[in-house]
C-alpha cells in the first residue's frame, strides 16, 4: 500500500508538473517557458534598399528603353513598310517585299561582300600585331610607359580626324607618293583605284585599332600567373612551347572578347568610308552601313534601309557566334 500510495503521489506530482496545459494540447514541462524573443524585422530596410536601387537604375533603364529598345522596334516595324519622311500619312505595309528586294539587289550583295572582305582582311592582322605589341609591352624595359602610351594614342583620336590625316597621306601630293618619288617609283592612285581603295582603308583601320587591342591583350597577359612560366621553364619548355601551352590558354577569354568586339565594330564601319572614299570608286568600298546611310538619307527610303539594317544585324550576329564557338574551351 505504501508503494502504491508512493506511486500515486509520484504520478500525481508528475501530472502536476507534466500534465496537459491549460488548453489541453500537450504536455507541460515543469520549467517555466521563457518568453520568445522576437527577432527584429529587416523587411522595412529591405524595402528601402530596393526602392533606392530602383531609383539609381531608373535613369539608365529609361535611357535604354527610349533611345535603344524603342528605336530598334520602330525600325523593325519600318522594315515591313514603304515609307519616306517626305510623304504624308502613315507608312504603307508591304510585308516582306523589302527583304525580297534585297536578295535581287546587286548593290546590296556587293555591299555585303565588301563588308565581309573588309572585316576579314582587317581582323587577323589587327589581333596578331596587337598581341605581339602587348607581349613586348609586358616586358620590363626602360621607356615601357612611353612605348605603351605611343601605341595607345591613335585610339583616343576620333576616327574622323584620323581619316582626314590619312586622306592627306593617300592624296596625289601626300606622304606615300612623296616616299615613292624619293625611291624613283611612280605615284599611285591609292584611294582612286578600285583595286587598291579598300586595301588603303584597311591599312588605316589596322593602325587605328592596334592601341585598344594592345591594351586589352596586355591586361590579359598580366593576369597569367608567373609561376606557370617558371614551371614550364623548369620542365624545359622553350619560348614557343611557353607561348602555346601557357600564354594562349591563359589569354583565350580576352582573345575571344577582342575578336568578337572587332567583328562588331568593323562590320559597322562608316566614318572612315565616308571620309576617305565615300563608297567609291565604282562602289569598291561601299559597305552595308554606308549603303544604309545613302538609302535612308539620300533616297529617303526608310523601309528598305531598315530591312538592310536587320540583315546586317543577322550578318554580325552570325560572325560573332562563329567567333565565340571557335574560342570555346574544349
From TrEMBL:
Chain ranges of the ABC transmembrane type-1 domain: 112-323
Pfam families assigned to the protein according to its UniProt record, in alphabetical order: BPD_transp_1
Renumbered residue ranges of the record's region Disordered: 1-44
Swiss-Prot/TrEMBL keywords: Cell membrane, Membrane, Sugar transport, Transmembrane, Transmembrane helix, Transport
Localization (cell): Cell membrane
Membrane-topology descriptor: Multi-pass membrane protein
Signal peptide: none
Annotated TM spans: 52-77, 118-137, 149-169, 299-324
PANTHER family associated with the record: ABC TRANSPORTER PERMEASE PROTEIN, INNER MEMBRANE ABC TRANSPORTER PERMEASE PROTEIN YCJO
Family: Belongs to the binding-protein-dependent transport system permease family.
Protein name from the UniProt record: ABC-type sugar transport system permease subunit
Species of the source: Brachybacterium sacelli
